[in-house]
Amino acid sequence: MIIGLVAMVVAAIVAANTTDIVRFSPFTAGEFVQRFTPLFLASLFVERTVEVFITSWRDLASMRLKDAQKQAKLAVTTPEGTPAAAGAQDALTTAQRALTDYQAETRRWAFAGSVFLGVIVAGLGVRAFGLFVDSGEFEDLRQAQRVAFHTMDVILTAGVLAGGSDALHQFVTTFTGFMTTTRKNLTGGGP
């Protein structure tokens, strides 16, 4: 909530002090894919790096929790009235909850790691919006607007990279499909 409020205030200040708009370069579907390929590759690297670190760090405890859940499931199938069956359902519920909590915490760590690496990659120059800006006209913008644009580009690119390569692939596929359909419709070869 606070971050959203701060973002809105910053956006209002930047908008109030900026009268120029950022112009994007025209591009074809092929150029779009070509421009997005480095971002897609960076996303693959970030995704795999996080997976390697998270797996090596959290996998043992996850396996133990899964084993405890499996043992609790077996205990639930024990005939009723035996000492092993009394409380077996509670043990299963506890084991399932522990595994779910652990998996949720692991996802939070993976997301944080992905965002962190995404910020580093974007800070090094692999960015989403910067790929499409007309660089000649961009240099004519005020310094504050260029800085704000680069800052938002880093933040948004970090989010895109943290989202993973599947999301990027789906976005590129949807866009190129749209461009192909539009071109066919404009040239008379439509549906």
Structure description:
The protein has one domain (27-186). 76% of the residues lie in helices and 0% in strands. The longest helix has 48 residues, at 29-76. The chain has helices at 2-16, 29-76, 88-123, 135-138, 143-163, 165-186. By secondary structure, it is an all-alpha fold. Helix 2 (29-76) runs antiparallel to helix 3 (88-123), helix 2 (29-76) crosses helix 6 (165-186) and helix 3 (88-123) runs antiparallel to helix 5. The model has no long low-confidence stretch (mean pLDDT 81).
Shape: elongated
CA(first)-CA(last) distance: 46 Å
Structural class assignment: mainly alpha
Strand content: under 5%
Q: Give the topology string: H per helix, E per strand.
A: HHHHHH
Domains, number = 1
Mean pLDDT: 81
Continuous helix count: 6
In helices, the fraction of residues equals over 70%
* CA-based gyration radius: 25 Å
Uncertain regions: pLDDT < 50 for 5+ in a row? none
